Amino acid sequence: MPPTAAAGYELDPKLPIGAQVYGLLKRMIIGLVFKPNEALSEKELALRLGVSRTPVREALIRLAEETLVDVFPQRGTIVSPIRVAEVMEAQFLREALEAAVTRRAAEQPSAALIRDLSRLIDDQHHAANAGRPEDYMPLDEAFHRTISEGTGMPRSWRLIQGVKGQMDRVRFLSLPNKAHLLLLTEQHAEIFKAIETQDPDRAEAAMRHHLKEVLKTIHELAAEMPAIFA
Amino acid sequence: MPPTAAAGYELDPKLPIGAQVYGLLKRMIIGLVFKPNEALSEKELALRLGVSRTPVREALIRLAEETLVDVFPQRGTIVSPIRVAEVMEAQFLREALEAAVTRRAAEQPSAALIRDLSRLIDDQHHAANAGRPEDYMPLDEAFHRTISEGTGMPRSWRLIQGVKGQMDRVRFLSLPNKAHLLLLTEQHAEIFKAIETQDPDRAEAAMRHHLKEVLKTIHELAAEMPAIFA
DNA sequence: AGTGAGATACTACCATGGCATAAGGCTGCG
DNA sequence: CGCAGCCTTATGCCATGGTAGTATCTCACT
Fold first, then answer.
1. How many Å apart are A75 CA and C21 C1'?
2. ipTM
3. What is the pLDDT of residues B129-163, one digit of tens each?
4. Nucleotide nearest to A75 (CA to C1')
């Protein structure tokens, strides 16, 4: 999880500042530290992060491309509201991409891919039983990233990540419980088995089914908390 | 050397400079005005375009995300070489996205979509018979964009555009002749008919077949002119 | 002649300052 | 009392200067 809004932004001056600011702001937006419709000022962010406005601006431009912020020229920048239509489109695009990649993975899985996925599922099983979502989420992310990158498609993961932000923000609204984490792990295992046994149809179907889990919560949440939706 | 670059590439000071520089550089890279592996200096580009280095830098960052340029921190920026593996991945991702969108379009096509596509195909037929590729390319682009945006998925077009650059650069190497333009139009018409008659399977298949046309030329070209490939 | 170390010249990177523009409040008039 | 127009204030946008880092070139030394 990101540091809180109040304290502890530790930026490493040795690494490119712009990229760090981007990652930090993105995590804070997804983690709802910055709420939808909240104003984000270049000047104020730069002040609070202890950097100049240039890298902040670069980060905001990148976030705007992912529609996590809305930039109004000469007026201001706000955290974008959660627009149901956009979340649905993101879901659709992610499913299209990840289903295709998973199918490809199942066609010719490398030994390294099998090994990495297997290990990740073990770790997920432990984290799920511990019941701590904050430990689980990075493992979930790693699972999906590994399928893309382990199949020789690094760019597909970057595209998926770009659309995923909208969905993650919704997901963050509902803290999954232990049972839910175990269910997710079970679905991951199913995807893995299909890849391992080189069954593309089954792998694609399992991935599509898995991704639809997120969708289920959206409509419930939209009804519960309409304030932060567009 | 004049303060502005080659004629026809001038910038409107009233519009956001950064976005204009991005579009201009992208067109020049795809159009091979800037050759693969050619060095691009922030300072020199700014000088030639008559703007400051800041918007040039912003444009280069965006182009780097599309892997049209490679930025080496503190060293320099070059036009990325045409990497066959990247072109193949771009092709794969584009097909996954556009096949899904086309299927969706065929499920519930709006009247406006039918009308717009129909008109575009007429225009393409005329441009193809005239045999001028430079007139045809914008129409081709519009056809694909219209399917995405006319189906309520504006973001899908942005993703497609992001990966398309790599492929367009390859396509630019082989000037299509009149027969080829007519073939493309025929394929567009087939996609259109499938959408119009609400036949998702046929629409998706037609789009996949259409997109594979580009692939055919890649390997031939890679053999012909290995110099500009990675 | 070959090699290594240092100076140099280049790069992208970040900081800062001035600018134009648009929203919102205030004032004066109807 | 209501509305229109000005003005203040804040914003993002662009220009420019300084900094740190890297490759190359030079020259001394082996």
1. 8
2. 0.89
3. 998 888 999 999 999 999 999 999 999 999 999 99
4. D11
